[in-house]
Amino acid sequence: MTSSKPTRQIDAAALERLARVARLPLTRDEQGELLPLLQAAYGLIDRLDEVPLGETFPAGAFDLRPR
Amino acid sequence: MQPCELSFSEASAALKAGKLSPVELTDSCLARLEAVQPTLAPFAHVTADAARRAAKAAEKEIAAGRWRGPLHGIPLGIKDIYDTGGVPSTSSSQVRAGRVPERDAVVVARLRQAGAVLLGQTHTHEFAYGGVTPTTHNPWNPARIVGGSSGGSAAAIAAGVCTIATGTDTAGSIRIPSAFCGTVGLKSTYGRVSRRGVTPLAWSLDHAGALTRNVGDSAAVLQVIAGYDAEDPASVDLPVPDYGATLDAGVKGLRIGVPENYYFDHVAEDVAAAVRKAIDVLRDAGALTRAVAIPYPDQILGTEWAIMMAEASAYHQESLRASAPLYQPDVRALLRVGEFILATDYIKALRVRQRMRKAWEALLADVDVVIAPTMPITAPAPDTQTITWPDGTEELIVMTLTRFTCQADLTGLPTMSLPAGFDRDGLPIGMQIIGRAFDEQTVLRAGRSFEKATDSVGRIAAP
Questions:
Q1: What pTM was estimated for this model as a whole?
Q2: Is the ipTM of this complex over 0.90?
Q3: Measured between alpha carbons, how far is B436 from B442 in angstroms, rounded to an integer?
Q4: Whole-number Å distance between alpha carbons of B7 and B214
Q5: Which residues are CB-contacts of B235 (< 8 A; sequence separation ≥ 6)?
Q6: How far does the CA of residue A43 sit from the closest CA of chain B (Å)?
Q7: 8-state DSSP, B75
Q8: How many CB pairs below 8 Å do chains A and B form together?
Q9: β-pair partners for B256
Q10: Strands of B428-435's sheet, edge to edge?
């Protein structure tokens, strides 16, 4: 299944706003250093949209004992 | 041969029989440590005096007929992410410089109770958040990385300092350095070993365990550290089986799943060849093989990174703001980026994780274990930023280092890395054996069969 959601496009301005929302002080240089890593992370996470999840529960904490 | 070069089983038997003193063995290990520490730096903090006192006490007890078990008098290292009472336990970070906990982590306490002799704290990649361990160098080639985050433990074992050292595994941190340094590393089932007293990286992914020189050591140390702990919310109250009882039962009839996707994509030629040859060795010993399809291959890394980054950044949130300059640049960057993972992304990753768990449960109904390369490559140079594959694909090294290991942290399945051979440059190649939940016995049995059939496992790098 292919998601209809577009891949996230994050630029320096978007990162600056995200940092403000997260109350994370970052200099302009630091923002520049983080941008490629954040783009890579979102690129991976966006692949999760391809999985149809329906009523699937989240596996937050789980007990692997055989049932 | 120096006492520190004895295998665990040889040393343990000699200690029990009174043919080797724990003091003699500990002195030998400390001498080897003193020789390699300047070039390899496996340890963050050495507790030589305390180790000699513990060895002396073990000597007296064994001589008096009070042998506690196979680990009695055996020197070992503790990864610096574990709390050791009265000893600087800093997660190899300036953020925690000078931190000395009062109490032992549960695993450390259990090892002490079993009579083990603690040599000190081994280096970790800062806060266990990385696959390099930049403080430490690879005993097989000091110009290559040891892997991480349990890199100091792996280097100590490979250099002949000790046969056992503790580790933790959140995205592969026991198995990555095991593969790069030619040691055995067992990440047991999620819930099998308590994490209390271990600095968390990501609570829902963190596993505590050990790296060892051989498979038998791995069974012996798991026997001691496994067990229920009501204070660790993930701990599971299940009886601990006798891991030694089935260790030598062989692999006749064992059904091995061989991945037809993912684990042999974008893999160094020598690595793929060595692992396929290792599978042939087990087939020759009576195992059966069948091709299996790895579920959700395109979501493994995204699921891991969404969960790990969000949980790690939540744990470090206050400290990151108060002490940002004290973090190493790579860890600081990961923690900052983790602040930007949306809650909906995190929950979605947990839901995909549930799908993965179910798919692996179904996969392991048809086979007993799956065998695959632990790492796509052998140990790279420290300045490696990307890997370029023959088809032109360029991969960030941070992805290369976790691509094959993190699914076992997501599913919680027991997985052991052990040396399958060596590449054309003499660097160790790791293969991993993935088993069913709480079936460490089968994983150990398969590893032991391979160990007995080859000479890849248990080697020490020339000092």
A1: 0.97
A2: yes
A3: 8
A4: 8
A5: B191, B194, B228, B229
A6: 8
A7: E
A8: 103
A9: B289, B369
A10: B43-46, B117-122, B75-79, B164-169, B207-212, B184-187, B415-422, B428-435, B369-373, B255-259, B288-292
